[in-house]
Amino acid sequence: MAHARVTVCVVVTDGQPVIDAVAAALAPFDMAEDPGGRWDRWRINGGSVARALPVRAGGEDDPRILRVSAPPEQWVPGRCDGAPRGLLDFAPDRAVARAHAEAEWAGWHAFARRYPAARPVPEFLDRHGAHRGGDAFRAAQRDFMSQPVIRAYMTEHGLDPDRFLWHAFNDPVTVFGDDQVEYVRNRVARAIPTDELLRLDGVWLDYGDFSTGQFDEAAHDRYYRTADAYLDTLPDTAYVVRLRIHC
User: Fold this and answer.
1) φ, ψ for residue 83 (rounded to 5)?
2) How does residue 31 score in pLDDT terms, banded at 50, 70 and 90?
3) What is the pTM of this model?
4) How many degrees, rounded to 5, is the angle at CA 123 between CA 120 and CA 129?
5) What is the separation of C-alpha 186 from the centre of its chain, rounded to a whole number of angstroms?
6) Among candidates 233, 231, 237, which has minimal Cα distance to 87?
7) Residue 81 in contact with residue 69, Cβ under 8 Å?
8) Cβ atoms of 67 and 75 closer than 8 Å
9) Are 121 and 166 in contact (CB under 8 A)?
10) What DSSP character marks residue 69?
11) Residues 6+ apart with CB under 8 A from 119
12) Is residue 53 a contact partner of residue 59, using CB atoms and an 8 Å limit?
């Protein structure tokens, strides 16, 4: 069993409580009714109050804004659990993500230029046939960490070579291997969507729907770009609500 974050998109009819519209959209995915469902319990939860959904300037006092996951005094102005799309403004969060991604990319490449070029960790895993673990995996890890830039990176970040495990999601050679435009594009796409999305048409998406294989790391980027673009297509009256589910 695990928890997941889901963004649910729903149409709310006049006078209908938002929570009822969300419950109706989630009903087909109830594990109590279908063992192949997606949840066994859920609650509205926008995330940390500082990173919840961003309210458009001037819309702060609109009664349609949903704030139920924290007491009123804990809310950061301009954040909410959910609201009609027309009351949300994603541009500032995307701008922050863009600036952070640009700085990350530039920082790694400035650091890496001081050392011989390194190879990404997936190459070492493939070379040793190490994807199933065991001695081959440990040998791949040792070979990857023997590269000067990786040794220096671990020292700078205080990473213990006896305890830290490298994979394609934390290896900077892989992570920053894209050109800057592609890297920044993928990071900006993660600013707003959660890990899963329930669309207005009742289709539930996550990164698995975009994977071409077990080790397809790029599936996450394809999912987030798709989810991010979808949120921009919603009509202004459609609600966007973030949930925490247990599955």
Assistant:
1) -175, 165
2) very high
3) 0.90
4) 145
5) 10
6) 237
7) yes
8) yes
9) yes
10) S
11) 144, 147, 173
12) no
